[in-house]
Amino acid sequence: MISQNEIDIALDAANNPVMVETAPHLQQVVEACCDCDVIGIDTEFVRERTWRADLGLVQLSDGKTVWLVDPLKTGPITPLSTLFDDQKTVKILHAPSEDLDVLLYTTGAVPDPLFDTQTACAMLGESLQMGYHKTVEWLLDIVVDKGETRSNWCKRPLRQAQLHYAALDVCLLPMMHRQLLSRLVDLGRESWLTEDCNRLLAKAQTPADPEQSWKRINGSVRLDGISLAVLQALATWRDKEAERRNLARGFVIKDVELLTISNRKPRSMAALADLDIWHPNAIQRHGSALLKIIDEVQQTGQPAEPLVTLQQEHRQLMAKMQKLVKQKAQLISVEPALLASKRELEALILSPSDEPLPERFLGWRKAIITEDLMELKGQF
Asked: Which of 32, 123, 201, 282 would you call most buried, defined as having the most Cβ atoms within 10 angstroms of its Cβ?
């Protein structure tokens, strides 16, 4: 049980956070955190026009003290990697995918071992997408202010309201961890969470393949042959260019523009301009590179293999699999998507029988759902 005194201490810490603005102070905080069994972690960042998130703040808390690390003042925050690599201290985050990305980039490490409170809630029957503030209310009956969600965290000075908001996002995590862990242990699901958190860490440390980026472009299924090969090559170029210039993909070239260029395949700057989809400055900057890519693809004459998607004969199998997942989820009182989403079922259906199962279907899910799904697949 969580006492009111513990809650009061945590909330008082949020009202009086310790600002960390120098490298020596950061090192002291890292050493203090490494002496703790658990540490709550959160980040605040801005990511509107850039490829990489611009980190504005890192929050740390043991439930009694809140440290707000200002990377714009401390300089490099790589000392945090010592804490992240320390296996004695459990790092608690809520829905940490984006946090892991920005922390890996700025420190070279990810918080390990990880305890994701959002996934823990899902394993206890709550929504798979339950936000931090809703989780706090559910576990601790505390309503947390959400007023600074869209603040500019890279503008200085930070306002008092921003600092308080940031501190509240982390001060309660150690208590939430204790509550959630106790319930997971009671249900025999602690190992489930460990497995899924390890998968999150592995995913965060696996670089995205630029050559696969075309698959996320809506409308790519309408192209085939050389046009699709052009799209694949252009999408790969865009990812590399966006990362090089630290720009979001759409600020290099939009998806719809890539589709139009791939379909029309202009052969000159004038033909590219005649498409009337791109600003003259963009044509001046990137036109030659795009035309070279188009020419190289056409010279090879190698058509692309289209993205494999579910065919009509798969629809009945998909419906039966979704029904089975729903039934199994009801038996253990969790959302069906925790066991398998529609996209994951699609990947399972399309995976060749002589290849390893998609990783999502291994581990704790294997006995609960995978074996039955594979038996069902074998009937079609």
From this structure: 123
